[in-house]
Amino acid sequence: MDGRFVKDWPRLVSWFPPTLWCAHAMITAPVALLAAVAAHAGFQVSVTVLVYPALARVPGEGWTVAHAAHSRAITPLVAVVYGLLAAASGWALFTGPGAWTLGCLAAVAVAVSVTVVLAAPAHGRLAAGHDPALLQRLLRADRVRAVAAVLATLAAIPAVW
C-alpha cells in the first residue's frame, strides 16, 4: 500500500454521520444506543420474568412442542432487538465513545457473550428434549443477561447528557 488509504481515511468515512435527523429531531449515537439498550433491557427482563418461567413449567411430555413454538415465536423479535443493539453499539463505538458509553458497551458485551456462549447452545440442546439441569443453567444465564441489559441501560443514560 502506498499510504493513500490511511491519508484519505477521514475523507472516506466522512459520509458516516455523527447524527441523524429524524422527524425534526436530532438523533445522536448515544441517544440511539440508549434507545437500543432500553429496548433490549425491556425484552430481556420480560423474557426473564415471564417467558422463561412459563416455559420452565411445561412438563417433559409437552416440552419439545412448547420449546419449538417458543423458538419460532421469539426468533424474529430476537433478530430485531439484537440487530438494533448491534447497529447502535457499532455507531456509538465508531463515533468516539466516552466513559459512560464504554461502560454501557461493556455491559452489552456481557449480555451478548452470555447469549452466544451459554443461552443459544442451551436452547439448541433443549430442542432435543427436556433436561431439567440444562434448563436451570439456561435460567441462571438468562438472569445474568437481564442484569447486564439493565446495567447497560443505566450506563447509557448519563452518556446522553
Automatic annotation (TrEMBL):
Protein name, entry field: DUF1772 domain-containing protein
Specify the species.
Winogradskya consettensis
List the top taxonomic levels of the source: Bacteria, Bacillati, Actinomycetota, Actinomycetes, Micromonosporales
Keywords of the record: Membrane, Transmembrane, Transmembrane helix
Where would you find the membrane-spanning parts of this chain? 27-52, 73-94, 100-122
